[in-house]
């Protein structure tokens, strides 16, 4: 076995980064509300996403109550159940996770981690948030319009999404599509910013292959989002036309409740292709930032460089590229031409290889580390378990013939909640515990954090691991009531009730977390500038929280990669990226 | 220490749950045992990987958690180890993909002697159609759908006249005979789903989809809709009864053909028209 050293502090000659003229706020309004500071925008994104995410959390309680104890809650009928699952899914995937990872973490961390003063287009960045907020408000308004929100499922498959057999046909679906269109407009403004900032505004010495993996993850996810969201955009516009103008993009000739409708010639499967051409990359748009962030959490809290950095970068890029040619694995039983199955099963299983490399490198980073079991580290470990579990069940669903019996069952629900629900949220939570001190200058309470972790992790695992077996038995998804069927045994109802009870407990544990966020803001232990003794630039700012412009008079200069932890011969067990090599030589001589 | 034990317990508990789970697939009723076999192979491989990764992680946490004076090792890369793991993973993936594609090939290759039958979905019930004595089903179009002709058969197609139409009743199938199930929808997406059959496929308005299977045991099976189709999605039910050949024949004798069903209504219409004159 040959250990290859990485980046032996050699050449740092890139071009000078010119000074940026920033718009300095003149009033409270322009400092905290219509702010052009990426850090403030990040907080705005995060708070908005969390607020709408709480709505999704409540919806999940309501649908679990219905599933666990069908018939007990008279205020939940079939229509409402469908509206709950639709809004829960859409909010969690797009308005919470996408917005939080890219708009929240992206805005806060990209400029700080690459050593920039701000995003390159601060004004557009501000607009991005306000358009996002508008999208969220339009979405939330559907709870109050006649007919309520759409109940078409988060996939919004036509024809049913725009026909009268589905709740929310009047206003719900129109506003849902409008909201998605707004979201994409807002995201595009932000996304261009993140990409250009990473490519153009890195400080001296910050080569691409010295960027922290957090930036690599968010950057690649943003590029993917810029390529994938347009497919959803056109699909939304076309479906709006079908609904409002009577076009037939997705509508064949059909008979609804005995009435011949005027549609004809369209293809419902076309929508599915457009939706999943967006929808599958979307899974990785949520996953890649999580991959990047968790790499940095593990490395920092195990006091050890991330193992196989170059391979990690290439794995992120490879996953991003491959994720554009696997979309139809969501459509194995859609009725598309069956020969597609061979191609998409092969590409889908190939994507498991770079993904597995990432997992190996995370656990190999722990090997011979100095593992501090802090709250961020616990969440990182929780992420690895849930992600490995969810990733492996993806090999069932990706392998076309295995998908046939399992598709549209609770197995699918369990799989995607584990892999793109629980796992990324583990990272989000770990990341909040990790960076909260930088944002506020105070530590989150440790005891509440550990309680929050154990209840959330073990609870979520108890919810979703057994759920796979319900699907294996054949229990279909999107059923508000399983009704009578020979294969639905009494034990199915027992397990459903158990899952509901655990889900409520996990839900309430999040209240402890929210309390911690507020409590620690006022009463938390002051953190200092670099409480985790981390190497990356955001911990080296002159002020904590960092002021507008991030750095003092001069931008930091980067001399090394982001993972110089426990370097042999160094005095400390970490060397910041902006520490010049001369210092290191002196340290080496001193010991 | 405690953390390492909990992590290990999660891995061990998952394996034990798998072994002792009372929730397991339904007894299979068609020739698609190969699908179950492929699932089993996948369970073995993924289960081994899952246990190995989590156990290794738990060991690392146990062995290398922070103690006063511990220093982490510094080894940024190890090309040999990384390539070795990549190749190993590729082999594991191949071991699942190869049988999967072989079985998929069988799944999409309909045997020549398969009898065509038709299942039609609409909000929120099922209809069925069997070919008549000529062994062929007539053409259909949603434009022909009316209360007299709920499945939209072409009234001018001679192949359709002897088709057996089962509008609101259970479907019977003979055991041991391969069937190609043609799937059609009048309004929105549906999915003909019988857990014991393993095979399923969406039904899409505007096109005809299909799958094939050979029932291997007699019995009564619940039909559910597996693709969200609106308010009463969960109540869209029917039954499929797999019979011995003789029972199937007896049942088939009693069914009405399209001509019989529409003939009766044609007579009604004629009476009405002549009465009007």
TrEMBL record, chain A:
Residues 23-559 form the Cytochrome oxidase subunit I profile domain. The keyword Cell inner membrane does not apply. Gene3D superfamilies: Cytochrome c oxidase-like, subunit I domain (1.20.210.10). Keywords: Electron transport, Heme, Iron, Membrane, Metal-binding, Respiratory chain, Transmembrane, Transmembrane helix, Transport. One of its GO terms (cellular component) is membrane. One of its GO terms (molecular function) is heme binding. It is a multi-pass membrane protein. It is found in: Membrane. SUPFAM superfamilies: Cytochrome c oxidase subunit I-like. Its main location: membrane. The keyword Ribosomal protein does not apply. The chain crosses the membrane at residues 40-62, 82-110, 130-151, 171-192, 213-241, 274-295, 307-328, 340-363, 375-398, 410-433, 453-472, 497-519. GO terms for biological process: aerobic respiration; electron transport coupled proton transport; respiratory electron transport chain. Pfam families: COX1. It comes from the Bacteria. Belongs to the heme-copper respiratory oxidase family. This is Cytochrome C oxidase. It comes from Bradyrhizobium retamae.
Automatic annotation (TrEMBL), chain B:
InterPro entries: CcO_II, CcO_II-like_C, Copper_CuA, Cupredoxin, Cyt_c_oxidase_su2_TM_sf. Belongs to the cytochrome c oxidase subunit 2 family. It is found in: Membrane. It catalyses: 4 Fe(II)-[cytochrome c] + O2 + 8 H(+)(in) = 4 Fe(III)-[cytochrome c] + 2 H2O + 4 H(+)(out). One of its GO terms (biological process) is ATP synthesis coupled electron transport. The keyword Translocase applies. Residues 112-254 form the Cytochrome oxidase subunit II copper A binding domain. Its EC number is 7.1.1.9. GO terms for cellular component: membrane. One of its GO terms (molecular function) is cytochrome-c oxidase activity. This is cytochrome-c oxidase. It is an enzyme of class 7 (translocase). The chain crosses the membrane at residues 41-62, 83-104. Its main location: membrane. PROSITE patterns: COX2, COX2_CUA. It is a multi-pass membrane protein. It holds the Pfam family COX2. Keywords: Copper, Electron transport, Membrane, Metal-binding, Translocase, Transmembrane, Transmembrane helix, Transport.
